[in-house]
Predict the 3D structure of the following.
Amino acid sequence: MIYLDYQATTPLAPEARDAMLPWLAGPEGMGFANPHSPHRPGRAAAAAVEFARDKVAALLPPGGRVIFTGSATEALNLALLGRNWKQVAVSTIEHAAVLDTAQASGAAVHVLETDGDGLVPGNIAIPSGTGLVAVMQVNNEIGTIQPVAAIADAAHATGALFLCDAVQGAGKLAPPEGADMIALSAHKLYGPKGIGALWLRDGIELAPLIHGGGQEGLRSGTLSPALCAGFGAAATLASARMEADASHAAALWVRARELLPDWTLNGSASQRWQGNLNLRRDGLDVARLMSDLRDIAFSAGSACASGSGRPSHVLRAIGLSDRQAKSSIRIGFGRYTAMGDLEDACARIDAAATAQGV
């Protein structure tokens, strides 16, 4: 199997796995202890959690705190529902965790349009009275990198706070400048599934969504030292490898584009994370393509919307017709993708599409 679906999830880094194992130990090692217990094993587990928190915080701006959550979706829900916003503004290409939560919040929702390249203009007008603006750092479907610093400035100029979904950018790019809240997910930066985080700038107040023991202050529930340790190790590795990972993704991008010359790129060719290649061939039957290539893992769109049968809202937002959107695929690669595997996969994808007569 050749794995080319890095936007859906990244492979677990061996270093992250190794950091987790001691905290999965049985009775003898006591790594299983509750980090909220006052005895010695509990205190050791708590120390591991705080060590990991510091490592995740190192990926983010100074002057804020990291709250561990069960996922980035939970983190985004906490940001959007943790205050009674009267009006929020969100881009047309946000993840469903932002779009659906904004609609469910009871706030008036203003939609910020993107251009044909999949970019929100940095000088976009923010409606008066907006309390929160949410624009992602890197789009999960087409990989476009948004001008978040400029958008944050525009939000602040109107008195709004700025929330950034950095799930696809954390550990790959510098943290989003000017953000007041940042959501991230461990399993998108080579860490474990089941844990995310919300970074809150100092002075930002929210109300909890999950009530109970108050373990994270804003978020109740027993933390997993193993998941926290894996997240922290993955964050440390991502920081150390940021330049090397970006260089490897860029080399893979250039080679893939050479091997797929008859495909049309969706989204900006320059303002994007180069580990995301979203392409189309008009008239392509993507379901047939995926069936013909069952030993290559790639995507027909966002993994979160797979199986819905609906055209991608992101591809529609950049002006594609439903037919064009349904003729698009997403190839995602990263740290552990071998050049030879990518070359083999691209050659076979291209051949299978040509066999369809498109």
Residues 23 and 71 are 20 Å apart (CA to CA).
